[in-house]
Amino acid sequence: MRYADFTPYDIVLLLQGLGVTLALFIGTTLIGLAIGLLLAVVHHYRIPGCRPVIVLVTEALKNSPVLVQLFLVFFGIPAFLHIRMTPVEAATLTISLNTAAFAFVVFRSGIESIDRDQIEAAKVFGLDRSQILRFVIAPQAAAFSVGPLVGILVNQLQVTSLISVIGVFDLTKIGNILNLRTLQPFIVWAVIGLIYYLAAKTLALAGSRVEAALRKSVKWGGI
Amino acid sequence: MIVAENVEKRFGDALVLKHVNLRVEPGEVVTILGASGSGKSTLIRCINGLEALSGGKITVDGHDVSTKAGLVAARRASATVFQLFNLYPHMTALRNITLAPIEVLKLPKAEAEARARALLEKVGLGAHADAYPQQLSGGQRQRVGICRALAMQPRYLLLDEVTSALDPEMTGDVLRILAELAADGTTMVFVTHEIEFARHISSRIVFLEQGELIVDLPTAQFFAEDGGLAVPRIRQFLSKMKKD
Questions:
Q1: A222 vs B90: CB contact, 8 Å cut-off?
Q2: Is 1.10.3720.10 the CATH classification of the domain at A25-168?
């Protein structure tokens, strides 16, 4: 087999890879944030028995390599439960849960950053739990959480590159393919790295825009 | 009527309230005096349900605060002003005041806001309706706190050391408003260190000593030689407070 040069079609390949990476990132972000938020609320309300479980699971997710988690989900779970799992399913599940674990920590500290005093005042004035959550806790916790969340998501975008290992055709996998075909690793990985960089930078920029807008509209000096 | 019968409150091993009995009739202004740590604030927090009783019973207009439904009704009848204001920092003064009327009393927004503006006007903060707590001074924040309580149209106003965090000038502003409320016949339970003011506005004064309610007298009698001053502990407490 002869090694081939780059072709214009490679740009389409790269775009496809980027598309897969972004789609997976956006999907897992939405799922992860939703689960993280849910966990933080459940944790806040001290629903019996839930706290230790939540803390144990999120700690495990935060303190073990994502690649190991990915292998466990993709190879381990199907073998153990005798089910089939596609690479995309395994990747979605793993990254979503991983994002959820980090988002949980941010949301939890957002909730905990709120003075107990205000919550006591709201209780005394007759607001119920869900009203206190909605009117007192959520707006302040959200403002508190935006900055740290953007940081986490920029990191999670890079983490998605690991899913190429289990055979998802993301940007990194495309890089692999191009590299094998052209044997030009310096060019291939520089370009792939640059694309990740640009995507991450765009995300960070958008995040700081949102934060700035919030800061401007939030006159109470909460963030 | 607020009735406390044999109220007991423990924090771990510490007995903070010991068999406290207290009745507050509509129209009365009852001041609770006592040294720091004597249980004054705890008693208020038991009345508004922020602390669960360890023993005894408290009812507000017959609603038992230790039952869930009773607490909801009791909280509807009373409103609390806090020492450290406890305003919602992310809401304007106006929104701080209208939140509970709109969400709990289900008042239409326009009506709640009109009432809130009238209250702010009354306490001299008409121009500050759209200010956030952070933009207000301590005295202004506490006046917003009072408006927030009054907006619930409570039958009983619970005031927990509402001037302790304020400098003397701001204290004067807040006390003036409370004196007006007292003159209007607002029922108040007033925890304070402002003895002269208490003497001026209270109908009754009770004295807590290490969790025990040792004296409960009409104001004039409390300060009389053959009344409260005949109790050595009270004489000592009052003379100390005067020196400070």
A1: yes
A2: yes
